Amino acid sequence: MDLLDFLTKEELLRFFHCKKTEMSCMEEPNIFLHQLRDHNLVPEKLYKKVVKMRCKEKRKDGVYQILDWLEKERSDSVHLFWTCVFKDHILQKYPVLRLLRNSLMDGSFKVFENLPAPVDQTERENKPVQIKETTAKGKKRERKRKKSAEETEEDEQPGPSCSSIPSQKKLAKKLMFWSRSKSIRTEERWFTPEEFVKQELTLIDGHWKKDIRCHSKTLNYLLTLDEKNDDECFICNSDLGDLLCCDECPRAFHHQCHLPAVQDDSLGEKWMCTFCVLKTNQRWWQPRQMTEKEALSSSISQYILHCQYLLLCMYKEDIDWVFTEDPTKTVSGYSRVISDPMWLDRVKTKLQNKQYKRLGQFVSDVRLIFHNCHIFNKGNKFDKLGSRLSEVFEREFKTIFNIK
Asked: Which of 16, 228, 255, 329 keeps 20 to 30 A from 57, CA to CA?
């Protein structure tokens, strides 16, 4: 007989309830989710939503949501759940499931039998809990539940019988709350409202969520953006494969799309993308103003980060990979017209192999890409695309090197 046949439904369900978080933290959970789907243990819509998630934190939340649904809606299938996730091919993939199976085999799972009963939601809402605490003067007072930001905002709206100007006390509390919280997201980073307003302030129609703007985006729009990192790569716009999330901004990247390429074993507790590292560096060490000639003659060794940033900007703009790969292999007759072909992947390889000695050599190769494009295409849509990317490159180049 199977081990699970010796356990009651209540024991299996209690064990499941206590281990949902552990299971939701497993790495690369897609095979686990496929197994649940094959046994009709997950709603199709929820399954498709979670398997498309590439941000690790969002994916953990999604797996937990599936397990929570299973416990609440399909508790009668808990025996089937453990049976299908304890299959050999699943156990080989996920160490956490091997540990859970061992816990059931050696009886250590029984430690969860004396858990307190869950608090009923209705009872919790209808019976406010009063917690007493002693003040420094020996008096006792009630500790009130802290209101959410939405409740606070609703309470402070002027009513029919009150003045339309909020009291100084309420206004001070509200400003303190907002000024300390990084609650506003732009495409580049998170801001406190105080930081956000300093970015760009243009009053238009008197409604504060529309009046406050940053990079032409209204606060009303920015408040609708997800609090977590993006679900697609910032460079290639694909949601396939594992993504690495920046801890400073909302961007996410494939390991190989980012420059420099990132290895999992090199990651620390906090990881910042090249965009954020460069911006942080320039915030602390404002680059001195220089001429273009001075910049081009500089040693490239001190500007590797800047070159990586410029290449990332080019890869980001080249959404159709027109300038990414070797054109002699993809464009008919290219070699007959262009004697010195150049493309972004080749520039990246030369940069990684330290073939550039001066910054001017790197810049010259990037400019050659767009010069060749103009010579070969002359007036067609690819010529216009090359001109647009060339403008982006020149603008970013002059900005980050503070060229006068």
From this structure: 16
Beta carbons within 10 angstroms of residue 303's beta carbon: 20
Whether residue 56 contacts residue 245, with contact meaning beta carbons closer than 8 Å, is answered with yes
Structural contact between residues 391 and 374, judged by C-beta atoms closer than 8 angstroms: no
Helices 56-73, 9-24: axis angle to 10 degrees equals: 170
- Residue 53, C-beta contacts closer than 8 angstroms, at least 6 positions apart: 59, 62, 231
3-class SS of residue 84? helix
**Other CB atoms within 10 A of residue 354 CB:** 10
Q: Write down the pLDDT at residue 169.
A: 42
Rounded to the nearest 10°, the torsion over CA 208, 211, 216, 222 is 10
Residue pair 192/219 in contact (Cβ under 8 Å)? The answer is: no
Whole-angstrom distance, CA of residue 152 vs CA of residue 202: 26
Report the pLDDT value the prediction gives residue 389, as an integer from 0 to 100.
96
pTM > 0.85: yes or no: no
pLDDT at 348: 96
What single letter denotes the amino acid at residue 242? D
Q: What is the DSSP letter of 265?
A: G
- Name the packing angle between helices 359-377 and 304-317 (round to 10°): 20
Shortest CA distance to 394 belongs to which of 361, 358, 370, 375?
370
Two tokens at 81? 């759940």
Local structure of 194: helix, strand or coil: helix
d(CA 370, CA 391) in angstroms, rounded, equals: 10
CA distance linking residue 265 with residue 55, whole number of Å: 18
Query: For the chain (length 404 residues), average pLDDT per consecutive 10?
Result: 74 87 88 91 87 77 91 89 88 88 71 56 49 39 37 41 40 42 67 65 50 66 65 88 87 92 76 91 80 94 95 93 92 94 96 96 97 94 94 95 88
Report the C-alpha gap between 328 and 308 in whole angstroms.
25
Contact 324, 389 (CB under 8 A): no
Query: Comparing C-alpha atoms, which of 149, 109, 120 is closest to residue 10?
Result: 109
**Single-letter residue type at 38:** D
- Is 83 in contact with 35 (CB distance < 8 Å)? no
Helix (H) or strand (E) holding 141: strand 140-142
- Cα distance between the two ends of the chain: 80
